[in-house]
């Protein structure tokens, strides 16, 4: 179900292109250092998608964006995630941290049990290889849920 008109989708695509070009890695790289910024970034990137997309932002030690990839694609209500591919890509890009995100095409961003299991599995794999999982963001139609902000990733946020 698409919540955007064709003209709105075109504007979103153009905005993402501009953002991606401006955020090329280096001194001008996009800084994703808090749940609000990351949520806004992924809202723009994923809210308009009609199928489920699992994306990962790969960050350097200062939480600057190295690259963001749409890694896995699913149907309107599910996608298959391969943790080893996320970790492999993080290692190849020399990422120090990652932020995972996916959309719920239904529009409801509340995390499912499966979302929580994937998050836990990804968190464990990251810990083994000294990669920080900073957040897992679930994007709905006009709202996002940050597991970090909600205290669901590492416990309550102070």
From TrEMBL:
Database matches in Gene3D superfamilies: Cytidine Deaminase, domain 2
Keyword Protease appears in the UniProt entry: yes
InterPro entries given in the database record: MPN, RadC_JAB, UPF0758, UPF0758_CS
Coiled-coil positions: none
Top-level taxon: Bacteria
GO terms (BP aspect): proteolysis
GO molecular function: metal ion binding; metallopeptidase activity
Upper classification of the organism: Bacteria, Pseudomonadati, Thermodesulfobacteriota, Syntrophobacteria, Syntrophobacterales
Pfam families cross-referenced by the UniProt entry: RadC
Domain MPN span(s) in chain numbering: 31-153
Protein name, UniProt field: DNA repair protein RadC
Alphabetized UniProt keyword annotations: Hydrolase, Metal-binding, Metalloprotease, Protease, Zinc
């Amino acid at each position: 179900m698409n919540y955007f008109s064709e003209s709105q989708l075109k504007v979103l695509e153009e905005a993402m292109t501009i953002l991606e070009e401006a955020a090329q890695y280096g001194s001008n790289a996009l800084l994703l250092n808090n749940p609000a910024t990351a949520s806004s970034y992924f809202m723009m990137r994923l809210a308009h998608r009609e199928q489920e997309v699992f994306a990962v932002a790969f960050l350097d030690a200062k939480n600057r964006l190295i690259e963001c990839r749409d890694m896995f694609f699913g149907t309107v209500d599910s996608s298959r995630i391969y943790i080893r591919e996320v970790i492999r890509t993080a290692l190849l890009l020399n990422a120090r941290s990652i932020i995972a995100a996916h959309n719920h095409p239904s529009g409801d961003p509340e995390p499912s049990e499966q979302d929580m299991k994937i998050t836990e599995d990804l968190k464990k794999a990251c810990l083994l290889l000294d990669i920080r999982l900073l957040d897992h963001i679930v994007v709905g139609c006009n709202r996002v849920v940050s597991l970090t902000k909600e205290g669901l990733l590492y416990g309550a946020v102070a």
